[in-house]
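Data card: per-record layout.
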Amino acid sequence: MEVGNGPAVRTPEAPGGGQGMVGLTERVSLASGRLEYGATADGGWRLSAWLPWPS
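The structure for this 55-residue chain is written out next.
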C-alpha cells in the first residue's frame, strides 16, 4: 500500500505523542513487513507499507 500527498499549507501542529511512525514501524516489523516514509522532492509526504500475505 502506498499513500502520499502534495505540499501542505502550514497549520498549527495538533497535540500528540509524536510516536505514530515509530508505532507503525514496530507493528509492520512484527508482521515481517516493510515500511518506508518521508518527505518527497516537491515538499509532500509519502508512506509505503508492504506486508506478507499468506498464499
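Known properties of this structure: The longest strand covers residues 34-39. The beta strands are 2-5, 34-39, 45-50.

See the next section for split statistics.
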